[in-house]
Amino acid sequence: MVNYYMFFFIFLSCILVLVSGFSRNLPILAFDEGYSHLFGDNNLMILKDGKSVHISLDKRTGAGFVSQDLYFHGFFSASIKLPADYTAGVVVAFYMSNGDMFEKNHDEIDFEFLGNIRGKDWRIQTNIYGNGSTSVGREERYGLWFDPSEDFHQYSILWTENLIIFYVDNVPIREIKRTKAMGGDFPSKPMSLIATIWDGSNWATNGGKYKVNYKYAPYIAEFSDFVLHGCAVDPIELSSKCENTTPKTPSIPTGITLDQRRKMENFRKKQMQYSYCYDKTRYKVPPPECVIDPKETERLRAFDPVTFGGSHHHHGKQHRRSRSKLKDDDVSFM
Ligand SMILES: *[C@@H]1O[C@H](CO)[C@@H](O)[C@H](O)[C@H]1NC(C)=O
């Protein structure tokens, strides 16, 4: 009996070590191996080592890059360092989308970084759309436990058939489980990875109160440690080339451990500033996957009265508009 428990304990420890150390042995790509320039000509700069890029926003343009392949499920990650000081109105996005292939029923999984006035920290927003569900935004917004403009931090998306997990460094910050009631709203078609920096003056900071100030331009976001560990898909036939053949890589997470779940709950209790589930102005009846915690209702109401029950900032609409603007500027995409 004792031996059995000991064995189990050692076994469990091994798993925890493997999982908690996942950032260390990730299969990292050079920029050119996985990504291409999307828009913004010289405002995308590949650094000498070929493994890092800068994208910048100035009066003329923002910039962005896109994965060469479409992916169906996988683990996608980049280390990002955001511009410092006054960054109100600046938006940096690291996201998956197939908006260019499916205009009416696209899917999306978003990390969005919203700049701020001097002395106030960046905020980070996550969201998903499935099959064109753009009328149902599922935004959550959080503070971070560090200054994301001071150093590189790893931002990752795990996307499987039934699960989406957003990670910051090794901490899962949000888990979205596919439920029956969500129907087609869960992303389920191949997507590209995209990173952009752009002018979100109309909604990014306090609902558009603070605009981008080009006196402080260029705003430079740095990207590194590219991981595109997914099932690459033929863009014409949309058939996957890697059904069941993706080798299991121990450094790639497949779900949340008990320890990580505890960290996630802690993070959400401390850092979440907005959740669509609690936004009565937008949703008289919360979307079906929402589980409402009365304590959380109170906490969020006290925390962020501007976005909680106040006027809606239309960032969904603004957002789509700037996405389609990106498309017009770019001829090389797809
Ligand atoms: C996705 O949308 C299309 C067209 O709007 C619809 O025909 C299809 O049934 C939807 N798929 C799912 C899984 O809901």
Notable traits:
334 residues; alpha+beta; Jelly Rolls; 5 helices; 19% helix; binds 2-acetamido-2-deoxy-beta-D-glucopyranose; ConA-like_dom_sf; xyloglucan:xyloglucosyl transferase activity; apoplast; signal
CATH domain class name: Mainly Beta
Low-confidence parts lasting 5 or more residues at pLDDT below 50? 12-22, 307-334
Q: Given the C-alpha coordinates, what overall shape results?
A: globular
The main pleated sheet reads as:
8 strands, antiparallel
The spatial strand order of the largest sheet comes to 1-4-13-6-7-8-9-15
Ligands (ions, cofactors included): 2-acetamido-2-deoxy-beta-D-glucopyranose
Mean pLDDT: 84
In the CATH hierarchy, the third-tier topology is known as: Jelly Rolls
What order do the helices and strands follow?
HHEEEEEEEEEEEEEEHEHH
How big is the Rg?
20 Å
CATH-derived architecture: Sandwich
- Say what oligomer this is: single chain
Tally the structural domains: 1
How many distinct beta strands? 15
Q: Specify the structural class.
A: alpha+beta
How far apart lie the N and C ends? 60 Å
As a percent range, the share of helical residues equals 10-25%
Measured by DSSP, the beta-strand proportion falls in 25-35%
Q: Specify the number of helices.
A: 5
GO molecular function: hydrolase activity, hydrolyzing O-glycosyl compounds; xyloglucan:xyloglucosyl transferase activity
Region (Disordered): 306-334
GO biological process, one term: xyloglucan metabolic process
Domain GH16: 5-223
Kindly describe this structure:
Residues 311-324 have a biased composition (Basic residues). The active site is at residues 108, 112. This protein has one domain: Jelly Rolls (Sandwich). The protein is 19% helix and 31% strand. It has 5 helices and 15 strands. The strands form 2 sheets. It has an 8-stranded antiparallel beta sheet with strand order 1-4-13-6-7-8-9-15. The protein starts with a helix and ends in a 5-residue tail after the last helix. It binds 2-acetamido-2-deoxy-beta-D-glucopyranose (NAG). The site of 2-acetamido-2-deoxy-beta-D-glucopyranose has 5 residues, from loops. 2-acetamido-2-deoxy-beta-D-glucopyranose binds next to loops.
